[in-house]
Amino acid sequence: MITLAQIQPEQLDRDRPARLKWYHWVGLALVATCWPLNWMLTGLRTHVLFFPLWLGYILVVDGLVYRRRGTSLVTRSPREFALLFALSAPMWWLFELINWRTQNWEYLGSRLYTDAAHFLLATLSFSTVIPAVLVTTELARTFRWIERFASRSPVAITPQVSRNVFIVGAAMLTLLLAFPRYCYPFVWTSLVCLIEPINRWLGRHALLNDIQRGDWRTVVSLATGVLICGFFWEMWNYFSYPKWIYHVPFFGFWRVFEMPLLGYLGYIPFAWELHGIVRFARPRLALNI
Question: How far apart are CA 268 and CA 253, in angstroms?
Fold first, then answer.
């Protein structure tokens, strides 16, 4: 497996391929087929079209990354790429467990399936979340303006700061579970405050380490990538069935598709949480973000 330490920026420019990878075109075919079918067919259809649609998205974006950089998640290690799907499903079921308490979203049409069928179909769909966010983040990392965040003022992250961040995360999670109506936004911030210090203590890649060096590129790339993903998630969901809808106390206005406008801000710490979970579970995964 190629590690990022072995990939030099000048090598990426010199070795930039003239053509897109073959799987990019497979992805385009999947998107071109599944997108209109998901919106135009009546009755139940998203349960069979969600996975191939998002697999198509992932392959298209990864192909663009390869075209721009000469390296991508798929080409560096197909095995590690496949394992991201296996990691993604249980990760999202964790958020579903928290949502059982907060009730911030629900799935219209899910009651038309047996519990076993719903679990299996949902698990298949959830498996695309982490790969989609990471390949889009790698694409965002190729944007030239991201380099502006390479050398910002360093932030002192002392051992005490790490402990305080962890304590804040634990407090957020406790308040979330105790007062879900008022503290529900903590679902998108509590876990990142918990996982970041853990990764730092274990010697894994942590965003706190990047911030300490004044390097905010990964932080910004993740935020950019997940907002792009979020747009497609919400857009493709809008005319789907089954589909998800939101119940957001106090801030459920100015909806863009089903999501309240302010709700899109939750995607940003969500991406940081995903990054922390991936770094914890797959510390040797080479990410170009």
Answer: 19
Bridge partners, 244 (sequence order): 107
Amino acid letter for position 129: V
Kindly report, residue by residue over 134-144, the tens digit of the pLDDT: 999 999 999 99
**Paired tokens of 252:** 């459920």
Q: Please give the biggest Cα pair distance in the chain.
A: 56
If you write DSSP's letter for every residue of 39-68 in order, what string do you get? Answer: HHS-SS-HHHHHHHHHHHHHHHHHHHHHHH
In the block, which residue shows the tokens 């940003």? Answer: 268
Count of beta carbons in the 10 Å neighbourhood of residue 166: 18
* Residue found by looking up tokens 């799935």 in the block: 107
* E strands present in 85-155: 105-108
Pick from 197, 192, 191: nearest CA to 159: 197
β-sheet bridge partners, residue 256? 259
Q: Are 62 and 73 in contact (CB under 8 A)?
A: yes
Residue 243, amino acid:
K
Q: Please choose, from the candidates 255, 245, 267, 251, the residue with its C-alpha nearest in 3D space to the C-alpha of residue 105.
A: 245
Which residues partner with 185 through β-bridges?
A: none
Buried b (16+ CB within 10 A) or exposed e, 82-91: ebbbebbbeb
Global pTM value: 0.92
CB 65 within 8 A of CB 138: yes
Dihedral of the CA atoms 236, 242, 247, 252 (nearest 10)? 30
Q: Over the stretch 142-164, which tens digit does the pLDDT of each residue have?
A: 999 999 999 999 999 999 999 99
